[in-house]
Design goal:
The protein is α/β, with parallel strands linked by helices. The chain has 18 helices and 27 strands. The chain has three domains: 330 residues, Vaccinia Virus protein VP39 (Rossmann fold, 3-Layer(aba) Sandwich), CATH 3.40.50; 81 residues, no CATH class; 108 residues, no CATH class. The radius of gyration is 29 Å and the shape is globular.
Length: 634
């Protein structure tokens, strides 16, 4: 019976496999310096030659972003970890029914653990990472060890509370450390995104250029949709050297270069502008001649050409002042607009003379409008702080929360209400993204799901949060979700809303498996008797279930039901998506009964069978009664 691997994906080996598919001659075998065993590796000299149109002799200069520690950051993104997610029912809300997740722990480890479960499924990611102002804390990603040592550490080291370290400007690697931190996380974030998905990253001006550069490297130049300037409503004058900053920025990338944001709903006044209608729907017209800035022929010479009016005459883009202007499109695009019925001619009278004027049609498209890159009409940071404090009875429990309205706007333009879109924020902070998802669902009857990740960073002594009993930020996040969820559930909402204001709390911890499970070569003979059971003694069956869900790539938000069958505790995940039994003394009769339910997957404890004969017969029983079931053990 095949055993589950019980650690996250080895992205290095997966990437090597992808290279081998494209360039088989570029993948070879080499001895691992640490273990002496053979493993696949890439012949990078050969790969470079495969991708070049001329003979290469040595390294050459090329356009790319580089910094000290970039290779370690790439290792941080690709290396597997032998950790798990442990459920915390008592810290959750509506644990068995909710579709929302709250993950407590290091966010790099979290998104690695989530990768197989949500690979290519996330529609929207929003993050608000540390701005790197010199006063912020960044994640201390210590990946300077070799790959093998790192895997051992990830399996055996206890969780550290010292993962957040100050990044002062006096640090010689000030920008490099920040780039390494964000680079590794963006690489995994891209893999999580759906093909039509988007990521929004809040940042200030100090790291804006670096963020754009590293984002283009991860997502591609064509996938940088733009930069949104947001008015914060607060003048940040300290240390600004004469320019008070009242803006921060949101950089937007897409997974696919062809994806477009949905746009915002139009007001009735805006919709009234679409005062014409044909078989395609309501539309308005705008002049095909470019108006405003850069509207002269010399600005875009290829956009100055003649078009034919309905009478066969040539019409050029001439401005009312008499100078040669230009069209808004090229000649090829104009021909395409004509074929698609998007061009309309109208007779206009100018200076007593009648002449043809050419216009382009713009259809209503479901009542949505394109989003401006200047957001100066939303709630500011002060309002966000006041609203959060009001939720906590006037206590300021968190500094600088983002406004809920800001996140709701992002959710509106990045997700569909009824598509079960998944929204992730792995720098969750006070939980604004989760609250915004709940509020937006309640308003439009949507069924979006959120996944929040927050490290339990300790709050400072003497802070208001500490005085009212919070020891770390993750506790604040969860309590805000509870209070906001209750307020939303008891307030007005859409008739179609399912009422889900819960969240399932999962905490990152060391693996449920004993060290012998991962490195049996390190176990002394005298310790073998203690290692008969490869599961740690303090772990519950539900702990084991969630590690199986992570390892098997099953949705972590599926409903879970527990049932007693022939005296054994059985977990049914989404009824028959996965059936798990971690009790001992499993008989062949129980195996046959579970096989009769024809689950998609089934998992048992490796030493949980009443005899070796039963263990040997398990796969044969399922082949006979439920041949489509995938059978594994831990």
């Amino acid at each position: 019976m095949e055993k589950l691997k019980m650690h996250s994906s080895d992205l290095i080996m997966e990437n090597i496999a992808k290279v081998r598919e494209l360039f088989p001659g570029c993948v070879t075998e080499a001895h691992d310096e640490e273990t002496g065993q053979l493993r696949l590796t890439v012949d990078f000299d050969q790969l470079r030659q495969e991708l070049s149109d001329h003979t290469l002799e040595g390294s050459q200069e090329r356009y790319h972003l580089n910094w000290p520690g970039k290779r370690e950051a790439l290792l941080a993104a690709n290396a597997p970890i032998a950790k798990t997610l442990r459920p915390a029912r008592e810290e959750s809300v509506d644990f068995d029914r909710t579709k929302n997740l709250f993950v407590e722990g290091d966010n790099l480890e979290a998104i690695k653990l989530l990768l197989e479960n949500y690979l290519g499924l996330v529609k929207l990611i929003y993050i608000d990472p540390p701005y790197n102002t010199g006063n912020d804390f960044v994640y201390d990603d210590d990946f300077e060890d070799d790959f093998a040592t790192y895997l051992i550490k990830s399996a055996q080291t206890e969780p550290s509370q010292d993962r957040m370290v100050a990044n002062p400007e006096s640090n010689g690697r000030f920008h490099s450390d920040w780039l390494s931190m964000i680079y590794s996380r963006l690489r995994i974030a891209r893999s999580l995104l759906h093909e039509s998905g988007f990521i929004f990253v809040s940042i200030d001006v100090l790291e804006l250029a670096n963020l754009i550069s590293v984002g283009k490297e991860v997502f591609g130049n064509d996938c940088c949709i733009g930069v949104i300037s947001r008015a914060t409503g607060t003048r940040m004058g300290s240390g600004s050297r004469g320019i008070a900053r009242e803006l921060d920025y949101i950089v937007v990338f897409s997974k696919n270069a062809e994806s477009s944001l949905l746009g915002l709903p139009m007001s009735e006044k805006e919709m009234a502008l679409y005062d014409q209608e044909d078989e395609k729907g309501r539309y308005l017209t705008r002049s095909l001649r470019r108006t405003g800035g850069e509207n002269r022929r010399e600005d875009r010479p290829t956009m100055f050409f003649a078009v034919q009016d309905p009478d066969g005459g040539d019409v050029y883009p001439i401005a009312p002042e008499g100078y040669e202007s230009r069209w808004v499109c090229s000649k090829d695009t104009y021909k395409k607009l004509v074929r698609e019925g998007m061009i309309e001619w109208k007779k206009v009278t100018r200076h007593g003379a009648s002449k043809w004027q050419v216009y382009q049609k713009h259809y209503l498209k479901g009542g949505r409008k394109e989003v401006s890159d200047l957001w100066n009409d939303g709630a500011g940071n002060k309002k966000a702080t006041k609203e959060l404090s009001a939720l906590f009875d006037g206590v300021k429990v968190f500094d600088h929360p983002k406004p809920v309205d800001l996140l709701r706007r992002i959710i509106k333009i990045g997700t569909e209400a009824k598509a079960s879109d998944i929204v992730i924020d792995f720098f969750a902070g006070s939980g604004t993204t989760g609250v915004a998802v709940l509020e937006q669902n309640a308003e439009d009857g949507g069924n979006r799901q959120f996944i929040l990740v927050q490290f339990p960073e300790e709050v400072g002594d003497g802070t208001e949060a500490r005085k009212v009993g919070f020891s770390n930020i993750a506790e604040i996040t969860k309590e805000r979700l509870r209070r906001s969820g209750h307020a939303i559930a008891t307030g007005p909402h859409h008739v179609d809303w399912d009422g889900d204001v819960g969240f399932r709390t999962l905490k990152i911890d060391t693996s449920n498996m004993q060290d012998v499970y991962y490195r049996p070569d390190l176990v002394d003979q005298k310790d073998l008797l203690q290692a008969v059971d490869n599961i740690k003694p303090d772990r519950t069956p539900e702990d084991l279930l969630f590690q199986v869900l992570v390892d098997w790539g099953v949705d972590l938000a599926l409903p879970i039901r527990r049932e007693t069958v022939q005296g054994k505790n059985i977990f049914f995940v989404d009824e028959n998506a996965l059936v798990a039994c971690f009790d001992t003394g499993v008989t062949e009769e129980l195996v046959k009964e579970l096989a009769g339910r024809e689950p998609l997957r089934v998992v048992f404890r490796d030493n949980g069978f009443v005899s070796d004969a039963v263990k040997i017969n398990v796969e044969q029983v399922f082949r006979q009664l439920s041949p489509g079931t995938d059978v594994k053990s831990i």
